[in-house]
TrEMBL record:
The keyword Oxidoreductase applies. This is Flavin reductase. Residues 14-157 form the Flavin reductase like domain. Gene3D superfamilies: Electron Transport, Fmn-binding Protein, Chain A (2.30.110.10), Winged helix-like DNA-binding domain superfamily/Winged helix DNA-binding domain (1.10.10.10). It comes from the Bacteria. Belongs to the non-flavoprotein flavin reductase family. Pfam families: Flavin_Reduct. InterPro entries: Flavin_Rdtase-like_dom (IPR002563), NADH-dep_flavin_reductase (IPR050268), Split_barrel_FMN-bd (IPR012349), WH-like_DNA-bd_sf (IPR036388), WH_DNA-bd_sf (IPR036390). Keywords: Oxidoreductase.
Length: 335
């Protein structure tokens, strides 16, 4: 007797197995193209080269696949989530707008994937409510694209485990604070070199950063905002910047002395921003676009989850003002 099991729980348990995502295509006896998203794909044999996958018997493509001698398996790339969703919808014209190349048996071949296998159907087995197809691989292609991942009903990205040994040897473990500190220090090295040429240091960079988010602030306000970096600003630091012609001090309406950018200071802040962007590009050299996005997303989460107890004046809106230079820059670029 077959054991009775809870289908939902069974599906959930199967979802614990992480897979890639494929689209399997064929050419039906009716001359139409068929295809569907499948993660039941697996390797079977090296010699002869064989792969397998299984197709639900209720699939609208069942006749096409059981009646065909060939199929092609496309291992989807990380940016092909939309392709996966398109081929997972029953009934829809999945090939609309696509002009596929043709493989063995006129099977449609899709582009943009990580790897592609053209197969001859070697065996078909009954597999309960699925049919299992074993294909002999006649031809295959690989493309340098990171793969799309499927786990627990969700798409995911592959994140290679880092070579932690490199870091822990010198820095005593992979404590997040160490990693963030080291990454930040190294990221800023080219900017520090630029500042050093002008006889300036980190603290001056932090002052210029605060000013670039909003011009015309008192020394006290600058000191309060810069303090988030752990630096203690005093009037001497501001006077050094004035001495280099980067800022000027003016009396505000209430008589308080306010720090403003000079034209040169504004240009220098832009130059530093360009160096920062270049340094970011260098730092992300070993990351693909999605990994870089994930890194920022996770850091934002860390920032959010550690924000408890942060003084009110360090809220984002206290840093940003209407007259920030990036806004002005964007307006100038538009004009
Ligand atoms: C990630 C993912 C993996 C899937 N794997 C399979 C599979 O291995 N076999 C299968 O028959 N259906 C699978 N499906 C479901 C089919 O793609 C879906 O039922 C599709 O609508 C079938 O299309 P058709 O009825 O036009 O053949 C999967 C769906 C997704 C989103």
């Amino acid at each position: 007797m077959t054991a009775t099991i809870d289908k939902t729980q069974f599906r959930k348990a199967l979802g614990a197995f992480t897979t890639g995502v494929t689209v399997v295509t064929t050419r039906g006896a009716d001359g139409k193209d068929y295809g569907l998203t499948a993660n039941s794909f697996n390797s079977v044999s090296m010699d002869p080269p064989m792969v397998l996958w299984s197709l639900g018997k209720t699939s609208s493509s069942i006749q096409a696949f059981t009646g065909s001698e060939h199929f092609a398996v496309h291992i989807l790339a990380a940016d092909q989530e939309a392709v996966s969703n398109r081929f997972a919808k029953s009934g829809a014209d999945k090939f609309a707008g696509i002009k596929p190349a043709r493989g063995h048996g006129e099977v449609p071949l899709l582009d943009g994937c990580s790897a592609r296998f053209e197969c001859r159907v070697a065996y078909q087995y009954d597999g309960g409510d699925h049919v299992i197809f074993v294909g002999e691989v006649l031809n295959f292609d690989t493309f340098a694209q990171p793969p799309l991942i499927f786990h627990g009903g969700n798409y995911g990205l592959l994140l290679k485990k880092a070579d932690e040994a490199d870091i822990s040897a010198t820095f005593g473990g992979d404590w997040l604070g160490n990693l963030l500190g080291r990454a930040y220090y190294q990221l800023l090295m080219p900017i520090k070199a630029n500042l050093k040429d002008k006889g300036l240091g980190d603290i001056h960079y932090n002052i210029l950063s605060v000013l670039s988010m909003g011009d015309g602030r008192s020394c006290e306000e600058i000191a309060r905002l810069v303090a988030i970096s752990g630096d203690h600003v005093d009037t001497g630091h501001v006077l050094t910047l004035a001495d280099r012609g980067l800022v000027r001090l003016e009396r505000g309406d209430d008589g308080a002395r306010l720090v403003h950018f000079t034209a040169e200071g504004r240009a220098y802040a832009m130059e530093l921003l360009a160096s920062c962007k270049a340094a970011e590009g260098d730092a992300e050299r070993e990351l693909d676009y999605r990994e870089a996005q994930v890194l920022k997303l996770l850091l934002k989460r860390v920032i959010r989850s550690t924000a408890n107890g942060l003084p009110e004046h360090w809220r984002k809106e206290n840093f940003w003002r209407e007259n920030n230079i990036w806004r002005e820059e964007a307006q100038t670029a538009q004009a």
